[in-house]
Amino acid sequence: MPIETYEHQYINGEWVESTNAGQYIDVFDSNNGEVFAKVISGSQADTEKAIEAAAEAFKTFSRTTLEQRKGYLTAILGEYMKVQKDVAAALTKELGAPKPFAEFVQSNMFPFHVKAALDLVDSFEWEQTMGSSLIVKEPIGVVGAITPWNWPLNQIACKLAPAILAGCTMVLKPSEVTPINAYLLTEAIHKSGLPKGVFNMVMGKGPAVGEVLATHPKVDMVSFTGSTNVGRHLHALGAKTIKRVRTELGGKSATVVLEDATADQIRTMATHVIGNTGQSCNALSRMIVPKSRYEETVQIAKDAFEAVKVVAANDEGAAFGDIGPLASQMQYDKVTGYIQKGINEGARLVTGGVERPAGVPSTGYFVKPTVFADVNNKMIIAEEEIFGPVLVLIPYDTEEEAIDIANDSIYGLNAGVAGGDEAHAMAVAAQLRSGQVHVNTTDPNLMAPFGGYKQSGDGREWGPYGLEEFLQVKAINRPKARL
Description:
The chain is an alpha/beta fold. The chain is built from 15 helices and 22 strands.
């Protein structure tokens, strides 16, 4: 198969040559480890040119009406739907998402979030009267959006949709690990009629693109989704110009299983970490279990994980619930390394392990769904984010101890509670220091705020709280009424 090359950046409404012409980043097929595409490795000059275009466009786009901005976003959605199948096909390679998951989940996250954003803006409170003052919410300005490889369309949509509706302009730096979907989306945006400079995309690596967005004085906000280490770095860089930096970072999320949890509730919460081959920041990767239900829960998790089929992403026989390979060699090395650390630490390997699954290509980035039991919260596999389909089971004696174990983490992105008495489960959920808590379900609510406590970040996405991130609040003070 020929290797496709993507050599242009999208700046000021045009596909332009990079000043780094000839410098490329390899894009690997997760199913076989082979290079199937190359994308340009952009430069600082590319990024600065995009920022200048966004800053110029902001002068007029910020003054458009909400109806105009809704029209632009609706047109983008319409053009995207024409290429959605191409996006899904790209994701089976660059991300390793099995075909059904790529078509009906990963590629569908863009329309899901765009439609949700369009649904909320008419009821959003854009201004209010407070005494003699008019309080208005205005676009923050130029947004630098830095998105990850694991849920690429989801995270682009969570930034692009509210930014455009708010009246912001933006420069997108997508992940160079899964970049092809971003090119396809950008072509759809180009065809939508969005004014020049409102949306720009610069492909490249962190120092040449992300760090420039974080330090440039004409960038008013950086919205970043990714690792906690990079998030810390961007916060520090952004402080130099006192720009708004909003982050959605890593997690080591815990489910507290209560004494009265049903087997189905336990199974639901245990298998959350398997989705997307475990490559989700909010994955419920720790399960804290009462000793009276411990071995029963170990067996439930074992049976559930062993029932999962690992497949090549382009397997025509793939079904929902099947998982594909990890996204990259780096991910494969990281996840198998953590599994080996768990074995070395003395955790009980219930199922899975470092060996490759049977029946998949020998050169792809495939791992077995893995369960560890007899883990304590000070083990590496309980403290650090593995980002793979790995669940650790931790026993507890008292409910207070379970809550302490769940909260004993630098992270606080997600949490779960499994329990038969919903009122009791909700009372436990209230004590978990996490931006989201799922009680007997793992289903998302696209209108509820998504974001973390502690070192899981300081931003909120989705729904009205996600729109608020891209707005500034202004008080316009008027003369007080005379008596």
